[in-house]
Amino acid sequence: MGQKTNPLILRCNTVNILPYVLTPNKDKNINFSYSLIKYYILLNTIKNTLNTRLTKVVETQLFDCINFTIFNVMLHNNKPKIYKTQKKELIHLKQILHNKLSIINGKAIFFNFIYIPELIYLGNLMFGQMQINLKKTARYKPLIYKIEKKLKKIPFILGYKFEFSGRLNYNDIAKTEFIKYNKMPLHTFEENILYNYRYVTTKKGCIGMKIWLCTRTKSDKN
């Protein structure tokens, strides 16, 4: 699949002016103008200049979900199904985009194949949602229930563990609670263990949060 990259490099606040006039494609099944805008902003959002190297998301599922105002690809956990006819159209569209950008840049374009992980895959992004909800209610179980639903659907996550410590649910006595699912190795320094921690300030005090995510590796058969 290529090297992994942080999905945070895709910024939705970038506004770019296209240096050429958009012309619709002859094929009505492909919205050429709309797709070209999405693709152009994606390339300019990634921190690579047009004169050196361009980075492109090769997966057709991700390419089809990108929106030129908000990157909906960051919000989708389940990739949509792409049929053969749609895949042929997307491949044809990519060739047109490649030729267009080559003419504009005046140089040969090198495509670096990357893999963008899911949004829920990163613990620090989950913490952002947790902090907002815990500041309002200080109740973590309804939030964890929603996150667990998404984590169980992701095939490359084998197991996870959550730890919450502090005055939970507005209790006067501080306590620590664990939520664990499936496989979690005892040796936490392995490469396939993602660990993050954060704390949030509530009316009753600080609540500490820790997350362990066990990801699938090539050695895992099941």
Automatic annotation (TrEMBL):
Keyword terms: Mitochondrion, Ribonucleoprotein, Ribosomal protein
Residue ranges of domain Small ribosomal subunit protein uS3 C-terminal in the record: 133-212
Keyword Kinase tagged: no
One Pfam assignment: Ribosomal_S3_C
Domain of life the protein comes from: Eukaryota
InterPro entries: Ribosomal_S3_C_sf, Ribosomal_uS3_C
Any GO CC annotation of this UniProt entry: ribosome
GO function terms (MF aspect): structural constituent of ribosome
Any single biological process term in GO: translation
Family: Belongs to the universal ribosomal protein uS3 family.
Name of the molecule in the record: Ribosomal protein S3
